[in-house]
Here is the input.
Amino acid sequence: MKIAIWMVVVGLLFSACDWLDRAMASNELAECPDLLKQDLLTPHDEAIRTFHTLDLGDQFQVVICGSQYVHPPVLEFESAFAGGGERVAEFLVAQLASGVDDLTFRDVVNVFSRMQRQGTYDVGTEKLFLQWLEARGEAMTNNGWREYAIEVIHELQRE
Here is the structure.
């Protein structure tokens, strides 16, 4: 039984490395910061410490790339980013105001949800902002992601 488990673990590691090689060769990760590319090979605590040394723009890129280009998604950076509270919330509002695609909008909504759950920023008190978020979410073109984003926004409105 132990041999079978190790075979599965080794297979998963090889497939993760194979995926990383293919993604880098196809330039899927070309725009992503090096921290994200190295995350599979870096101990979790070390990657998070490094993440916190980055400026907000680079942290945002790590969060977006970790969610959109890595499979399965690397979501630990969302939590670390959400820990920045009001400072990160203001940055995200500026990103939304400049216009973002639907997947990035989804990821920003996820960060706001994490802020709410972590208690680092009370998004639920921002009623006008939440109404704007909901309207923007309704404009998403992918039905599945639209439903998901709207549900997360509704959860924020209830809290």
